[in-house]
Design a protein that fits this description.
Blueprint: H1 13-33, H2 41-88, H3 92-109
Helix pairs in contact: 1-2, 2-3
Length: 111
């Protein structure tokens, strides 16, 4: 058995699904042509390898999205705090300061 090279798989769900379907189609065609023979260990390992790469790519994508969502939740809590601070402020300067900070967080978040 030769050394296997790992390929980089696409991150889009549709593209990943196409890869899985192509692998499964190849396996089905192979099985159909040689229905009296068991699939070779290399074919099975290759399929598992492709599916593991797909799962790992999805995991990395989900981890990146989770981190972005976590940051946005932190920003929302900061914004809520600043809105409350502006609402209960005793003077106009304190209100403006809280609103300006909220604006800064929003602008930074939208970059």
């Amino acid at each position: 058995m030769g050394k296997r090279m790992r390929m980089t798989l696409p991150k889009k769900e549709e593209d990943l699904q196409k890869v899985v379907e192509e692998v499964m189609e190849t396996q089905h065609d192979h099985h159909h042509h040689h229905h009296h023979h068991a699939e070779s260990l290399d074919d099975i390992l290759h399929t598992i390898d492709v599916l593991m790469d797909t799962m790992n790519t999805r995991l990395v994508d989900l981890e990146e999205k989770t981190e972005l969502i976590r940051k946005e939740i932190v920003n929302l809590y900061k914004l809520f705090g600043l809105v409350v601070e502006a609402l209960v402020a005793d003077n106009q300067n304190a209100k403006l300061k809280a609103i300006a900070e909220a604006k800064r967080i929003l602008e930074e978040s939208l970059k």
